[in-house]
Amino acid sequence: MASGKVAVIRARPWAVACFLLPALLLLGALVLYPIGYSVWRSFFDASGDSFVGLDNFVELFTNDGIRTALQNNLIWIVVAPTVATALGLVFAVLTERMRWATAFKLIIFMPMAISMLAAGIIFRLVYEQNPDRGVANAVMTTVHDTFTDGSSWPDAQPRPDGPIEAQEDGSYVLLPPAEAGGTALLPLVAVPQPELEDADTAAVPEPAADAVTGTVWMDFTRGGGGTPGAIDPEEKALAGISVEAVVDGRVVAEAETAADGTFSLPAEADGAQLRMGADNFSAPYNGADWLGPSLITPAIIGSYVWMWAGFAMVLIAAGLASVPRETLEAARVDGANEWQVFRRITVPLLAPVLAVVMVTLMINVLKIFDLVYVIAPTASQDEANVLALQLYLSSFGADSHQGVGSAIAVVLLLLVLPVMFINLRRLRRENAR
C-alpha cells in the first residue's frame, strides 16, 4: 500500500505541488518573509536608509534597558517553566489519590481559559499595595497582625513649635525635664478624626508629690478654637501610649496612658526626660511592595505560573495514566515508600512528558509580553522589562528605532531555535522507536 502511494507521488509531482502550493504561499507570506525582512532591517538605521552593519546588535548589549530585558528573559526561561512543571507534576500525582480529582483539575486548569490581558488586570489588582484593595497584601497584613500588635497611633505627630521634639529613631521627647509633683502635658496632632470616634475625653491628672503625672492627648478642637498646649473640654485622649522616663539614655520608669490619656510615673522619674517610643507611632504593616522594582519580576512570574500550572498538570496527568501500574505496585511490594516510588519510578517514566512540557513553556515564556505590559506600573516597568516588550517599545514606542526592534526580533528567533531543535530531535527519537 505504501509503495503504491510513493508511485503515485512520483508519477504526478504536479498534483503534489498543487496541494502544497497554498500552504507554502501562506508559510512564505506569514513566516518566511517577516523573518527575512526582520533580518534585513536589523542592519539599517532608524530610517531604514543607511546600512549600519552590526551596530543595532551592539546596542542590545550596551543599552541598560535592553540588557535588563535580556537578564529578565534568562530568569523567565529558568524559573517559570521549572516552577510550572513542578507544580503540574505535584498536582497530577495528587489528583490520582483524590476523591474529587475531576473538580480539582477543573479548578486548576480554569485560568487557562482567561486571556493574558484579563489575567494581567486581575493580578494588577491582586498586587495592589493598599491592603484594602490588594488581595496579596490583605492576606499578609491579616497574618502579620494576628501575631504582632500594631502601633497605637501611627498618624500622631508633635505639634509644630510645641514642647515635644521628634527624634531620628521615630520617638517623641518632651523637652522640659519631668518634675515630681508636677504635671507633664504631651500634646500631639495629626490624628484623623475617624480614629478618635471611640476615644474618651482627655482629662487633667491630679498632681502627686511622689510621682510624675501627665496626659497625652489630641491637641485639636473640632471646628477650630481651643488653646494650643492646653487640654480643652472636647479634646480627645490618646490611650495605650507607652511613656518612658529616660535618664542618661537609660529607662528608669515606664507607664502606659489610660483611656483618658493620663499616666503616672514613680518618683524615679523626677528630673528625667519623658519619651514616647517609636513603637507607638510606627506606620502600620501594609505587606510587600509587589509592584516595586525588587519584586515586580517574581510577582509577574507568579501570575504566569498561576495560569500555566494547569496546562502542565493536564499533560503530565495524561502521561501518568500510561505509566504501568504493575511497576509501581512491584516497587511498593519490595518495600519502597511513596517518596521513593515517586522519585525513582514515576519521575523517570514521565521524563519524556516532562521534557515536552518544559520545552513548550520555555518557548512560551520567550514570547511573554502582555502580562508584563499590564501588570508592571510605569515606575517599575524598566525593571520588569523582557525582550518581547522591549521589541514593541523599540519599534513602536516613543523615539522608535525599528532597526533595534528588528535586531531584538532576530535575537528572540535565535533563542527559540535551540529549543525547537531539541524538541524536533526528541520527536524523531520517539518516532524511530
From TrEMBL:
Transmembrane segments: 12-35, 74-94, 106-127, 304-324, 345-366, 403-424
Membrane topology classification: Multi-pass membrane protein
Domain ABC transmembrane type-1 positions: 70-423
Alphabetical GO biological process terms: transmembrane transport
Main localization (coarse): membrane
This protein's UniProt keywords: Cell membrane, Membrane, Transmembrane, Transmembrane helix, Transport
Cellular compartment(s): Cell membrane
Entries under InterPro entries matching the protein: MetI-like, MetI-like_sf, UgpAE/MalFG_permease
Cellular component GO terms, alphabetical: plasma membrane
Cell membrane is among the record's keywords: yes
PROSITE patterns referenced in this protein's UniProt entry, alphabetically: ABC_TM1
PANTHER family hit by this protein: BLL4140 PROTEIN, DIACETYLCHITOBIOSE UPTAKE SYSTEM PERMEASE PROTEIN DASB
UniProt record similarity statement: Belongs to the binding-protein-dependent transport system permease family.
Name of the featured protein: Sugar ABC transporter permease
Species of provenance: Streptomyces radicis
